[in-house]
Structures are given as structure tokens and as C-alpha cells.
Amino acid sequence: MPVIETKTPLDGFNEKMESLAKAISESPEFIAVEEAKKKMRENEEAQKLIREFEDKQRGFQMFGGFGDPQAQTELKLCQRRMLANPEIQNYFKKQEDLTEFLREISKVISENAGFDFSQACAPATGCC
User: Fold this and answer.
1) Is residue 85 left, alpha or beta, with left meaning phi > 0 and alpha meaning psi from -120 to 50?
2) pLDDT at 83 over 60
3) Distance between CA atoms of 60 and 76, rounded to whole angstroms?
4) What is the pTM of this model?
């Protein structure tokens, strides 16, 4: 008995998406984020500052520090110290560069598809 092949709307589409994903993961922007993340993780001072900030943030949230001006000030100071670290700054900068690159890709998809791709992919807000 002959095998009947049926076409689905996704035929060929998955391969194209895999190709796009591979191209993104091989882009200079993506590679730069991964390298910056590795450097940040290997930097003891950066890790110490991140842990301190996360601990302070958890304590702030757990104990309802939202109304406590001193706790808010301490959290902000801890955040400033963390963000002053060059490895952490570099990581966030590389993330911003990657985000901009992905926005450009989204624009190209939107222009070619005839609809706002980023809006279609946005999470539902639960409103209206």
C-alpha cells in the first residue's frame, strides 16, 4: 500500500525557525552576552556584590520593607555598589545590545509578515 504524504502548515517552517535560532545564537551580540556572563560569573567581587544585593532584596521583600525608608535606602545603596562593578556593567550593556539586535529582527519579521510581530508575542496583560 502506498504511503500518502500530507503537507501541514508547519512543513519547512520549523527548519527555518531552527536556522534563525542558530543564526541568533551565533551572532556577535549573543556571543558577547555569553562571554560577559562568563566573566561576571568568574569575577569573585561581582559574585559577592550580586549575592549581597539578592540577600538584601529578599530580606526587603520578606519583611515588608516597602514602607521602611531606611531599608529602601540600604537596598538602593547595595544596588548601586553592585551596578558599579565593571563586569556587571559590561554584562548589562551586552544584554542591552542583544535586546536591540532582537528588536531589529522583530522589525524585519513584522515588515515581512505584515503585522506587529513583537505585539503578537507580548504576554497577555489580563486586561480587556
Assistant:
1) beta
2) yes
3) 11
4) 0.77
